[in-house]
Amino acid sequence: MQRIVIIGATGSGKTTFAKKLAEALAIPHHPIDDIRFLANWEIRPMDELRADITDLVNQPAWVMDGNYSKLRDLTWGNADTVIWLNYSFPVAFSRLVRRTLRRIITREELFGGCVETFQSQFLSKDSLFLWFFQTFWKHRKLYPQVFQQPEFNHVNFITLKSPRDTKKFLSQVSTVSSQPIIAA
Fold it and tell me: I need a labelling partner for 109 at 20 to 30 A (CA). Which of 45, 149, 153, 183 fits?
């Protein structure tokens, strides 16, 4: 497990989990949103984004997080593992609400200095809540089908259905990765 993609619903904790997993495995973490978004929520052109992702997936080890179908050929195509945070609707939605409110209140700077606002998240066609409602059930139906596609036969797919499963998985990875390697 050296080239890993983390997927899941908007706000489910992909980036947080990816950071912890990358740390446990002592490999680089590359959040795709950090590469995709420029200042003021400007979106990097797709050809530039694909070039940047191509450079990253050619590295020997990495963890990436994001659900970008237009990058799947690069990310999943070069991954050895895809981990799906397949949390229930209430869990994923409550995490999105808490994260969004925290970001609005603290004015947390994200990629390229972008800041979420009440207006952008509750009164905009670009709202993450709107995106969540448009994609949550669609992805739950789509991902199991995509997992079966022949171009991803080389990928080990892991589904974590609750934060408890995720914590247990991370604990197991941390335990295994901290074991000393004994030469024969």
Answer: 45
133-139, long-range: CB < 8 A, 24+ apart? 135/9, 135/10, 135/67, 136/9, 136/10, 136/89, 136/92, 136/93, 139/7, 139/9, 139/67
Domain ranges of the chain: 3-174
Answer whether CATH 2.40.50.1070 is correct for domain 3-174.
no
The dihedrals phi and psi of 131, each to the nearest 5 degrees, come to -60, -45
Instruction: For the chain, 184 residues long, give each residue's pLDDT as a single digit of tens.
Output: 999 999 999 889 999 999 999 999 999 999 998 899 887 777 899 999 999 999 999 999 999 999 899 999 999 999 999 999 999 999 999 999 998 888 888 888 877 777 777 887 877 887 888 999 999 999 999 999 999 999 999 999 999 999 999 999 999 998 766 555 444 4
Structure pTM?
0.88
Would you say the C-alpha torsion 34, 36, 41, 42 has a positive or negative sign? positive
